Amino acid sequence: SQQGEEDPQALSIQEGENATMNCSYKTSINNLQWYRQNSGRGLVHLILIRSNEREKHSGRLRVTLDTSKKSSSLLITASRAADTASYFCATSTSGTYKYIFGTGTRLKVLA
Amino acid sequence: DTEVTQTPKHLVMGMTNKKSLKCEQHMGHRAMYWYKQKAKKPPELMFVYSYEKLSINESVPSRFSPECPNSSLLNLHLHALQPEDSALYLCASTEDPNEKLFFGSGTQLSVL
Predict the structure, then answer these.
(1) Quick one: how many helices (H) and strands (E) in chain B?
(2) What is the pLDDT of residues A16-29, one digit of tens each?
(3) A111 to chain B nearest CA, in Å?
(4) A99, A4 contact by CB (below 8 A)
(5) Backbone angles phi, psi at A82, to 5 degrees
(6) For residue B1, pLDDT beyond 80
(7) Do B42 and A88 count as a contact with CB atoms less than 8 A apart?
(8) Alpha carbon distance A7, A106 (integer Å)
(9) Fewer CB atoms inside 10 A, N or C side of chain B?
(10) Which tens digit of pLDDT belongs to each residue from B20-60?
């Protein structure tokens, strides 16, 4: 399977704490993206990091990419109850429209 | 308009029924996607249309038949589905293979 693996599968933290989730993938990529999904709804794009980038920030989000290890991490700082959702990484291969999603991390932020 | 609109939101159908899912976007995106998602699982790619032509079919059973009538519209025709086909069906679009996907809110399908 080309699917990426994410860990942990589930994460429960207190409001105000930081949440870190990791994604590993198998093939060479063009870019790696992170998406959020609230229960039973569509996915929302959070951040995109290109294969020639190592780190990117957007608000409370920080993404790193290590192409030598074929891995990425998403850090959410100062988490809020509203951050409770499933988070997926997705990779695309250069020259194709094919986006493959990782297995996902279910984050629960307790108020 | 930065939305992908999917209809219906919910669909219940019998195994002998024929139904269609509809997806629409007016962002001028060149590629449109169908994904299938089971509970607590990641979205699984089914089909990709680029420039209104089917470019990727991930070995999806023929009881699922995609159609792209124009650059803004994508349909998924369903026929003789099985109960295991019950899932959330998501439509997405993108302007460029190097850019992000925009998702619709999905159709929750139940096959009885």
Answers:
(1) 0, 11
(2) 999 999 999 998 88
(3) 23
(4) no
(5) -70, -10
(6) no
(7) yes
(8) 10
(9) N
(10) 999 999 999 999 999 999 999 999 999 999 999 999 999 99
Model pLDDT for residues B69-102, shown as the tens digit of each residue:
999 999 999 999 999 999 999 999 999 888 899 9
Percent helix, strand and coil across chain B, each rounded to 5?
5, 55, 40
- For residue B69 the two structure tokens come to 């009538």
Residue-by-residue pLDDT tens, chain A, 111 positions: 456 789 999 999 999 999 999 999 998 888 999 999 998 789 999 999 999 999 999 999 999 999 999 999 999 999 999 999 999 999 988 778 889 999 999 999 999
Tell me, rounded to whole angstroms, the distance of Cα B92 from its chain centroid: 8
Residue of B nearest to A34 (CA): B100
* Residue of chain B with shortest Cα separation from A47: B100
CA-closest candidate to residue A91, choices B1, B25, B101: B101
CB pair distance less than 8 Å for B98 and A31: yes
CB-based contact A15:A94 (threshold 8 Å): no
Contact (CB<8Å) A43/B40: no
Cβ neighbours of A52 in B, within 8 Å: none
Taking CB atoms and an 8 Å limit, are A45 and B4 in contact across chains?
no
